[in-house]
Amino acid sequence: MSQSPRDRIAQRRQLQKQQSQIFLELLPVLDDLDRACNHWQQAQRQAMLAVKSDSKPWWRKLLKWWRKLLNWHITPANNRAAELNTMVKSAYDGVYLIRQSLLEVLERQDVNPINTVGHPFDPKHMNALGREVRADAYPDTVIKEILKGYCWQERVLREAQVIVADRADADSSNF
Q1: Cα separations in angstroms, 28 against 40, 76, 169
Q2: Confidence tier at 53 by pLDDT (50, 70, 90)
């Protein structure tokens, strides 16, 4: 028994509604992966600074220089710092690969991020959380993205939450 066109349309709409619900549930996972990537990047920078920093007394620096001179420059502390740096980089790489895989899956399903930073504010795709006076940006231009927005098949799944540039008042610039 064949379905009527009305039933097929209703079934198609129901399927699209279910798909959009699944995508909406995946977006917080993607947000968490973005935050994890940012965290691991920051940890990696700090680990590299720990390896490079020399906040030791002058006599320890002299001793280190002397050991280098005698080819005894590899110390357990240096090994631990290098291991920490390697571990942090490995964790970042793993989280980044998972994030990229999820993004690729979503893109194959036509779920795409909304480009915001540097673009004019668009109330159809963005939600302005605040305004910030900036001399280096045009008024009503997005200067910071708080939460990434996504579209699916030309429909907004989630609005981007942004901060928008504002022009300084003429009165306040006369001080």
Answers
A1: 18, 41, 38
A2: low
- Domain span at 54: 1-109
- How many Cβ atoms from other residues are within 10 Å of residue 173's Cβ? 10
Q: Is there a single domain that holds both residue 44 and residue 101? A: yes
Task: Please write the tens of the pLDDT for every residue from 71-92.
Answer: 644 555 566 667 777 888 888 8
State the CATH number of the domain containing residue 166: 2.30.22.10
Q: Which long-range contacts (CB under 8 A, 24 or more apart) does 55-59 make?
A: none
Residues 91 and 118 occupy one common structural domain: no
Question: How many domains is the chain built from?
Answer: 2
- Across 12-21, average pLDDT: 90
CA distance 157 to 159: 7
pTM, two decimals, is 0.70
- What Rg, from alpha-carbon coordinates, does the chain have? 26
Tokens of 59: 């006599």
